[in-house]
Amino acid sequence: MAGRELKWFKSSHSDADTEHSTCVEVVLDTRGTAVRDSKAPATGHLTVPHPAWNALLSSLR
Fold it and tell me: Looking at residue 9, what DSSP letter applies?
């Protein structure tokens, strides 16, 4: 995912943009799902395989 501009998005269920908001942003790519802190996007991101991301989402539902 490096070297390309990524199109980050966050859930409509995220907190409003306030000083104490909690939110992550994600990018779905053919190689995995990248996740970053929306309040500190310059600190980098974590990329996980799609099956692991789907398992996380399933466990939260």
Answer: B
